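pasting input
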Amino acid sequence: MSNYSLAVDIGASSGRLILGHLANGKLNLDEIHRFENKIVKKNEHFCWDIEALFQEIKTGIKKCNELGIKPDSIGIDTWAVDYVLLDEHDNLLTDAVAYRDPRTDGMMEEVFKIIPKEKLYFETGIQFQKFNTIYQLYALKQTSPEVLQKAKSFLMIPEYFNFLLTGKKANEYTNATSTQLVNAFTKKWDHELLDKLGINKEMFHEILPPKTVLGTLSKELVEEFGFDMKVVLPATHDTGSAVISVPEVEDSIYISSGTWSLIGVENRFPICVPQALKYNFTNEGGIDYRYRFLKNIMGLWMIQEVKRNYHDQYSFAELVKLAENEQQFQSIVNVDDDRFLKPDNMVDEIQKYCQETKQPIPQTPGQIAKCVYDSLAESYKRAINEIEEIFEKNFPRINVIGGGCQNEMLNQMIANVTNKEVCAGPIEATAIGNIVAQYMALGEIHTIQEARTTIKDSFEVKIYKNQYVRG
Ligand code: LFR
């Protein structure tokens, strides 16, 4: 039996600490700690409460100790694009402003005046989203240039937690690519882009690849926890970790389904071609320099917000049930529209969209939920068509991974609208990808192929087929 590795996986709506260990070629998981994450208002901006999140990480580590388990290593992944800046004394210069904050409104257009859109795409390969770090930094430059000038350290969220654990400051490759400031081919910070935008390039650190052992816990934390462990870099971008867990990547399209739906394929090189630009696909860096050619789709965020707007009166399962009872109702919204990124009220926004597009206006919670799920399935179908057009081939299978793959109704809808086989699982794809990267760093698993075989042998995958095709 292997030693224990601890994955810290924090998404936009929840975080968890999961212990992994290998026994007889199978990976076993134990959830040690789970907590809520949400956007809070701070200094007029939507922010993440990173102090509270770090306390939750510490609570989880202490729970391991209470169980008598001292993991060999820990790895942290979170959502991408967001960052903090530190001064010369390593004090925070900024809040951890959340990517849904409207400070980046209009910034993309400002950046394109300095760097043509095409150039930006052909160099970085990254999808245009108004919240990418490049636009966040440019927004900061407009309002507080002195802060940017003073900054000595740019750390993305998992990197800041790693710094608090070890005292070491480093940037990690998979998350760095999400900034739209890394050259897709050299895999380094693009100094030319930074210079053109007048962004202080001294604050960026060396980009380290996943599977790097960053260090061990600081002396203070060893004392506090009563044990030491290695701090390893997994793919610190959660989607990078999740896609490692896709059991079968050949001829498969994956959907990493959570707050976002990330839909795409794994690739050995970036595809920065005009057609990919036209459809706004990204080439995010992955473990072993495998690229994720994918598109961000609004995802379960919409239903999370709907649930919140109904004052959490219905659980997610209940909303699915209510939607199932509304088979006759159909209105489709464009889930890729930025208006759904952070509307004041998601239910109102969906209703307004339907009214403006002269479709039946959903009234009941069931109709709203049905509209969201139908719209998501439509958007997946569109993205799949675009992928097949770019690759000039048919992908017979879709692998849905992550928490969202537990939504049986949505899985079935995807199979029906795409007429493809849908494989659902594993659920904890991100934590699993995080853990196997740690095992690769420690030499317990040797290759991604071996990791994927282990994952396939360890976790159930459920198959869905188009209900309307016979035979
Ligand atoms: C998913 C994710 C996506 C990224 C979005 C914002 O959790 O990391 O990959 O585009 O959040 O960071």
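fyi The chain has two domains: 4-237, 246-425.
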